[in-house]
Amino acid sequence: MSFFSDIDHILISEEEINNKVSELAAQISRDYENKNPVFIGILKGSFVFMADLMRKVNIYCDIDFMAVSSYGNKSASTGAVKINKDLSQDIEGRDVVIIEDILDSGLTLSYLKKYLMNRNPNSIKICTLLDKPARRVADIKADYFGFDIPDAFVVGYGLDYAERYRNLPYIGVLKSEIYTK
Ligand code: IMP
Ligand code: MG
Fold this sequence. Notes:
single chain, alpha/beta, binds inosinic acid, three-stranded antiparallel beta sheet, binds magnesium ion
């Protein structure tokens, strides 16, 4: 097996991603003009999307990152996540946009949103490239999203399987034997 041949099929191509990221950036640039928002990328998954999106957003803004990991049991009703890296700046009174790779159960983002709300920002919105509504557990919606996808495990464009495939330039579905070996 080699890198590309691990992929069963491409779900979203580079061109489709590029077009969608341009649309999202235009919409966000309009909505946040003169607001000097803070964009918060959630590591690691969002790093590719964030880098592309930020280069198409044409307003003044700050960029920061958080790194989180789940405690393993995703079905835990609290959805508490471990904060591995917190913000490096104060967000009090600021307009915050959280940038995520994928909204799945929604537990991570609903926890994070509450966590950041405690710091009294003026507003918090969520921008995710992918949305898997069929898997939602937490009551949370994205304010900006790129693509609704079916309930399949996807990799690429920042998303990993066991830390691999983040550097794939498109969103793909892995061959099933990759999980089972
Ligand atoms: P949630 O808390 O269930 O919404 O989980 C979101 C996180 O789970 C994402 O930031 C991803 O790291 C991971 N995740 C969920 N679905 C996928 C997938 O299909 N491929 C890769 N990672 C995923
Ligand atoms: Mg992950």
